Amino acid sequence: MDAWKRLGGFIGANMPVIVVGCVATGVLLPHELAWLKPLVPALFAFMTFQGSLGEALRHPAPLLAILGVSLVAMPALAFLLSSAIFAGNTDIVTGILIEYSVPIGIVSFMWVGMFSGNTALALTAILVSTLVSPITI
């Protein structure tokens, strides 16, 4: 564990040099590093998620509230209202239900940023919502 902490400390202290070195290596040797291309989206998602997840897990109540409202309450309310308004048309009711069951959009992160909200919590909610969307939809 100490080795990981030392490695993390080294990387954190030398981040400007490491970033410039990585960018230069990618620009100068694109063909030699092409085999890493499929890993980029997964690594980016992992880095983004792990960076924001720590704060959200220390205080899980706001994240659970966001997910409860966006994944349970909103679709339930959409279903109830659309069933009452469009009682005879199951296609419209289904469409509205699916529309309100999609993951939290990245636009919500923009709003959180504009109003100086908790960006780590917003990012975690977006990522968790996206990860569970195959189940919730």
Q: How would you explain this protein's 3D organization?
A:
This protein is mainly alpha-helical. The chain has 7 helices and no strands. The protein has helices spanning about 1-15, 15-30, 40-60, 60-85, 90-100, 105-115, 120-135. Helix 3 (about 40-60) packs across helix 4 and helix 6 (about 105-115) runs antiparallel to helix 7.
Number of strand segments: 0
Mean pLDDT: 85
Radius of gyration over alpha carbons?
21 Å
- The fraction of residues assigned to DSSP E strands is under 5%
Tally the helices: what do you get? 7
The major pleated sheet works out as:
none
Order of helices and strands: HHHHHHH
Low-confidence stretches: none
Bin the helical content.
over 70%
Query: In angstroms, what separates the terminal alpha carbons?
Result: 40 Å
**Class by SSE composition:** mainly alpha
User: What is the molecular shape?
Assistant: elongated
